[in-house]
Write a structure and sequence with these properties.
The chain has about 450 residues and is mainly alpha-helical. It has a domain of about 160 residues. The chain has 19 helices and 2 strands. A hairpin with a 5-residue loop joins strand 1 and strand 2. One of its GO terms (molecular function) is hexosyltransferase activity.
Length: about 450
């Protein structure tokens, strides 16, 4: 019986993911229609988005970025002196902009935009579920049967970028008939595509390049520098090839998306440790902004450097560079110190809970903190708008979420750098026989 379940686990994961996505859509659709303004905005969205916690960026951005006018992104866009985007420019990398445009083509209001965007995003989640089941076995339930997929599956355009990150790991792990260099190059192309959807997969290129540089070379006394540079070059070439047409056709609109992000403040909408931890201790918001602009990138880069260095130390002790664990730790550093930590970013992290052996209890605690922020912050906005004192209620829940996630990221940063890679102990797939690092099966939950 168990053997049959294990054999059919990828299919089971896909079915469960489909069911969770249906719930995800129904949850967000509570904010959609049936009464619309002349611009296609749902009356329910403005009334209930915070009160019923059915808000989504998909519905919100139907207006304000010329998506409702079916303008192809970036080409004729730009940014005003006060930081407002116009002419089809969106605040995301170019491929996310194209996905938004595709979802809008058959749409005449924000409810239809939500529906068609959900149809567009669903295959990416189903493919991700299939790969995670192949790699992580029953642990795939963390992706397909926990609240984040239901809460955030159609909150924003996260599912395609999660797919590219998981697909890169899947290729490196399972395509054993290819050389390590070839696997690394293909994975780098996938990570480059991911960077053109949302930026975070780009940070995984460095540990991947170090993995290709070192894998199998320690005993022979040399490194595969050509392979490492090929990995980096493949990622850079992919990003350049995807961005070049947009930059050439509409440089100002393309550049505006980067300027928008650089100008964004760590304010009440960003759910960051900076807003909730640093701002209350500052008398001058201008000084606060300056400190955030200095500290945020400095601490992110420091966390990256420490993770890469620990990975190098692990390589010297055990002969294989733990690129998946280092990537996961780098993501923790990014999420912790970046000035924006949106609730849907939980979808970025969950695949690493599946692929790396960390205690279930800590995963559960992190997911509870994520639920607190995912619900609490919108109820907090509702209370503020309705004139209700949020102190001790929604504000407390929000802060539990903010600081619970922050504490979890610190802990997972350390654990990921020691955690064994699940597929190395999973006999359902073809794999390398060398251990990824020293955190052995005896430490597994």
């Amino acid at each position: 019986m168990m053997t049959a379940v294990r054999r059919h686990l990828p299919l089971i994961a896909v079915v469960l993911a489909a069911f969770s996505l249906l719930l995800a859509y129904l949850n967000k659709a509570r904010c959609a229609g049936p009464v619309f303004s002349e611009f296609g905005r749902s009356e329910n969205f403005d009334l209930y988005k915070n009160q019923l916690v059915c808000y989504s960026d998909i519905q919100l951005l139907w207006l304000g970025r010329d998506i409702d006018r079916h303008v192809f992104p970036f080409i004729e866009g730009g940014i005003t002196p006060d930081g407002r985007l116009f002419g089809g420019t969106v605040e995301y990398p170019v491929l996310s902009g194209v996905l938004m445009w595709l979802g809008a083509i058959p749409s005449s209001n924000d409810a239809e935009f939500l529906f068609y965007s959900a149809l567009l995003l669903t295959p990416f989640a189903l493919l991700t579920a299939w790969m995670l089941a192949k790699l992580g076995g029953h642990r795939v339930l963390l992706f397909v049967a926990t609240p984040p997929l239901i809460m955030y599956g159609f909150h924003n355009w996260e599912l395609p970028v999660v797919f590219t990150a998981v697909a890169a790991i899947y290729v490196v792990t399972t395509a054993q008939t290819w050389s390590i260099r070839t696997r690394g190059i293909v994975a780098a192309v996938l990570l480059g595509i991911g960077l053109c959807l949302k930026l975070y997969p780009g940070i995984f290129v460095l540990p991947l390049a170090l993995y290709v540089l070192t894998e199998g070379k320690k005993e022979r006394g040399h490194f595969d520098f050509r392979g490492a540079f090929s990995v980096a070059g493949a990622a850079v070439a992919t990003v350049a090839a995807i961005n070049a047409p947009f930059a050439i056709a509409g440089f100002e609109g393309w550049r505006a998306s980067f300027e928008f992000q650089s100008l964004r403040r760590a304010d009440i909408t960003t759910n960051s440790i900076w807003y909730w931890g640093l701002l209350p201790r500052m008398e001058d918001e201008t000084v606060y902004d300056a400190w955030v602009e200095l500290l945020s990138p400095a601490l992110i880069l420091t966390s990256f450097a420490v993770a890469v260095a620990v990975g190098w130390w692990t390589y010297h002790r055990h002969g294989t560079y733990p690129w998946v664990g280092v990537s996961a730790a780098m993501l923790c550093g990014f999420l912790l110190f970046h000035k924006v930590h949106s609730p849907q970013f939980a979808l970025w992290l969950i695949p690493f809970f599946i692929l790396l052996r960390v205690p279930w209890q800590l995963i559960g605690a992190y997911l509870l903190a994520d639920i607190a922020i995912g619900i609490g912050v919108f109820r907090y906005f509702y209370d503020l708008g309705a004139g209700i004192d949020p102190t001790g209620g929604s504000e407390l829940v929000t802060q539990v979420g903010v600081w619970g996630r922050a504490a979890g990221l610190v802990i997972f940063y350390a654990l990921f750098l020691r955690a064994s890679y699940v597929p190395d102990e999973n006999d359902t797939i073809t794999r390398d026989t060398s251990p990824v690092n020293a955190y052995t099966k005896t430490h597994s939950p």
